[in-house]
């Protein structure tokens, strides 16, 4: 029953996720198309393409590398949800990982899909509340908070949550975690490669190390 | 022709909301899908509620960061577009990058002299195109990613679990390293402290506190994050 349901789940995820992600890609252009139409400020297409080219130079590889790397942590629904709503590293994955942990869900089960999907949905609501309230009352709030709190939240929130999520995994797989941190640190400190290559080395390097430990543990078990 | 005044016109709030509505609708559809699966597979009905609550609460900390960043972004590119871009794919740094490239390609600086409505349009196009990169790739290729994961795990459930954990460890190792090493290969002490104290707090809470107070499990990430931020702030004061 479980296996049959998995394929139902996947079909339904694709039916929901594909049209919504593609639709969002299109609707994101509505404001700029209105701007150009209403104010007659259509830019030269070659300038738009070169602006995008410059941006794609920095981020293009991530369009592919990030979904591939995060897929195992997010699952199918989670991937559609996270790549539309963003804030993947600092909100979606940590919330999904914690929920899987607290509910003791096993990877690859329908329970894991349900739990990570719901956790990601919860985090999306929180983010929408944050961005919408910032739009309405943001300036007023920032004006009354002490400067060091503003700075702390802006500068350190991501670092702290990345560390905390890493810690959550590290405590379960300490040997793998050591390499998981060492590989990107070494790359960043000593090997001048572009950022997307560091991600690839980090993720696939860590998976390779995990495979070695896994095989070794299997041999010992035999 | 003040580009910020125009960016903040009410019509743009409406137009920006279209994409946000798509995200909200998608979220609702996936919640329904999860609840349906819970019923049909006879899972504990508390599980989806609990998971939703965990997501809602654990995201509060980082959402406060997004709140503050958004105020800054609103000043740079206008309220409606900042609201749109931070509610969907694309962190503030990525969006500012794209907006800046728009200005650069037009031969001016973001918000500087010569930053006309046409240049504003280029910035907005660049941001929409950049975001579309992730949206189109996932919209089209996610089923293939599932096949890729199946291939990599080779049907071995134990390895699937270990591989998923390894992927996450690799990703967060990278994100940590990115925070800890600043431009030019030097160590960024403040963020490094946030990363390390965040990690150690989480490990400590998971190991020693949650077993005795299981209800705290849902808040563990948030607590560890606050400790990480607080330690980094203390360092800031000490180093100042």
Notes on the structure:
Chain A has 222 residues and is mainly α. Chain A contains 8 helices and no strands. Chain B folds into 2 domains: 1-153, no CATH class; 154-240, no CATH class. In chain B, helix 7 runs antiparallel to helix 8 (157-180). Chains A and B meet through helix 1, helix 2, helix 3, helix 4 and helix 5 of A and helix 2, helix 3, helix 4, helix 5 and helix 6 of B.
State the main characteristics.
heterodimer; A: 222 residues; mainly alpha; 8 helices; 88% helix; globular; B: 240 residues
Which helices and strands, and how do they pair?
The complex is a heterodimer of chains A (222) and B (240).
Chain A: H1 2-27, H2 30-39, H3 45-85, H4 88-102, H5 110-144, H6 147-170, H7 174-190, H8 195-221
Helix pairs in contact in A: 1-3, 3-4, 3-5, 3-8, 4-5, 4-6, 7-8
Chain B: H1 3-7, H2 10-40, H3 46-58, H4 60-77, H5 79-87, H6 92-105, H7 117-153, H8 157-180, H9 189-209, H10 220-239
Helix pairs in contact in B: 2-5, 4-5, 6-7, 7-8, 8-9, 9-10
Identify the biggest protein-protein contact and residues per side.
A-B, 159 and 161 residues
Mind summarizing the main beta sheet of chain A?
none
Strand count, sense and closure of the main sheet of chain B?
none
Regions of chain B with pLDDT < 50 over 5+ consecutive residues?
none
Distance between the termini of chain B: 43 Å
Total strands of chain A: 0
The dominant shape of chain B is globular
Q: Radius of gyration of chain A, Cα only, in angstroms? A: 21 Å
Q: What is the mean pLDDT of chain A?
A: 89
Q: Approximately how much beta-strand content do the residues of chain B carry?
A: under 5%
N-to-C series of helices and strands of chain A: HHHHHHHH
